[in-house]
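ARCHIVE CARD
CATEGORY: sequence design from structure
SOURCE FIELD: tokenized fold
FIELD CONTENT:
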């Protein structure tokens, strides 16, 4: 009988907010619509210069579960850490102020944790593509259900780098000494990597987050800037150091090939028109992080494995030509089969790249790519 009348656990929600006057209302409304009603939220006004702080204060006047902390601008990591110091609860969640939650998000995540006793739970996401909400196929693949898992059970889960599709048991967060890096962008990955490596977790197939990718948001910036790329390398470096300290060769191999390399194609697309300084930084990062194991072994698509090999070889002009050619294609890059061996490889026009100067493994296709 006592269990029937036990109070629902309290979820503490940290909402960092900067420049979101057009989005904060929708974000808070999605929190109010949660079927798990026992929560309290701290909105951290990160020195916003628009009406963000005023809107947050108005919500706090309307609902006693919402409090506002006004701060000087310190960036997303600092705002989250400040919010953690102010919020209470049995569980801890992070909600970006330009996104929204499905109604059952916290109910689903908390229910899993109450049953499993795990340290945190993670669910799938959808993102806006135009007016449609689309679940990325790689997120669907990663979120096949698991309970009480360790990273060795599914090393590729390290690719789920987001802060906001998860709920932590607050005692586990504090015991692990988790926090978000400050002063750099892409701060999610080092912390979520540490959590997956050191804690037990539940994986839910349910969609628990609706992600809005917008130009100029607190987490979005121009990837072509030197500072942006330096921040990307810094957080990848932190994450790789944590994986290596974990000590599993299998987890490290999956992380380096499938997770750490996963977004490099975005940077290769920017090589045409990049500055010499940006190119040098791109190449130095590639050599530092994949120098032990060339990107030809990574999980990148074939043409981007080739681009990675060319970056390693300092062949900038060839990367430019390759990326400009790829931009003209309507589908995958052409393939050709070797008559003698039956092996398949990329087929790049000679005017774009002299294939005789390229290592065969940089052109090779895998069975599932044919």
């Amino acid at each position: 009988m006592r269990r029937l009348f036990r109070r629902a656990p309290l979820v503490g929600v940290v909402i960092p907010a900067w420049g979101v006057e057009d989005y904060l209302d929708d974000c808070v409304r999605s929190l109010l619509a949660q079927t798990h009603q026992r929560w309290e939220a701290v909105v951290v006004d990160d020195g916003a210069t628009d009406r963000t702080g005023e809107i947050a204060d108005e919500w706090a006047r309307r609902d006693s579960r919402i409090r506002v902390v006004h701060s000087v601008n310190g960036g997303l990591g600092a705002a989250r850490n400040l919010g953690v110091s102010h919020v209470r609860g049995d569980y801890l969640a992070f909600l970006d102020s330009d996104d929204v939650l499905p109604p059952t998000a916290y109910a689903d995540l908390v229910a899993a944790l109450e049953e499993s006793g795990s340290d945190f739970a993670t669910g799938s996401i959808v993102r806006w593509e135009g007016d449609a909400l689309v679940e990325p196929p790689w997120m669907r693949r990663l979120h096949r259900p698991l309970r009480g898992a360790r990273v060795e059970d599914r090393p590729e889960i390290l690719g789920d780098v987001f802060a906001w599709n998860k709920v932590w048991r607050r005692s586990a967060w504090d015991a692990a000494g988790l926090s978000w890096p400050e002063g750099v962008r892409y701060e999610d990955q080092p912390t979520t990597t540490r959590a997956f490596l050191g804690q037990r977790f539940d994986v839910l197939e349910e969609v628990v987050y609706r992600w809005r990718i917008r130009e100029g948001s607190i987490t979005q910036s121009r990837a072509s800037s030197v500072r942006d790329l330096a921040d990307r390398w810094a957080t990848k470096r932190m994450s790789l150091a944590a994986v290596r300290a974990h000590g599993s060769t299998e987890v490290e191999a999956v992380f380096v090939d499938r997770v750490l390399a996963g977004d490099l194609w975005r940077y290769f697309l920017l090589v045409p028109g990049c500055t010499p300084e940006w190119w040098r930084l791109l190449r130095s990062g590639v050599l530092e992080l994949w120098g032990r194991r060339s990107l030809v072994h990574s999980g990148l698509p074939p043409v981007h494995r080739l681009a990675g090999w060319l970056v390693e070889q300092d062949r900038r002009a060839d990367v430019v030509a390759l990326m400009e050619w790829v931009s003209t294609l309507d589908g995958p890059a052409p393939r050709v089969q070797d008559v003698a061996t039956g092996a398949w490889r990329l087929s790049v026009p000679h005017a774009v790249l002299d294939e005789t100067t390229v290592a065969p493994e940089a052109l090779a296709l895998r069975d599932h790519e044919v």
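CARD ANNOTATION: Residues 46 and 215 are 18 Å apart (CA to CA). The mean pLDDT is 94.
SHELF: design records, drawer C
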